[in-house]
């Protein structure tokens, strides 16, 4: 079970969580996830080539707090590049960028643009910008277990 301490944006200790729903444009892929009150937490904007080209604005949840309610993992298209740790996930029918899965870190980054009823203007008032062009993600062997390692480099993390 992943904890919120592994998330890029950590949740406040003991914060109540709420259920949110979302999905792709054609409704082939639908999901729900738990998250603290979505406007009380920073969302993340990354300038790496992939995130910038897709217009991602991320909210994060532990992997065990995200579930598909329509469609299956096998039906989602994925794309990885560079370290191949981050799985960018898309609907194969309409092409909607649903978000990212990062199994070795135990979290899901949900593209906030796919969350039902989201007020993007309000969400963007609490936006954390990350210089993903300088971000290095890797995994290392430690005692037989895969351990994530992050080097933010010169990220301009704000």
TrEMBL record:
Domain CENP-V/GFA stretches: 20-136
Annotated spans, Disordered: 138-158
Species whose genome carries this gene: Mycena chlorophos
Superkingdom, taxonomy of origin: Eukaryota
SUPFAM superfamilies linked to this entry: Mss4-like
Protein name: CENP-V/GFA domain-containing protein
Keywords: Metal-binding, Zinc
InterPro entries named in the record: CENP-V-like, CENP-V/GFA, Mss4-like_sf
Pfam entry (one): GFA
Family designation: Belongs to the Gfa family.
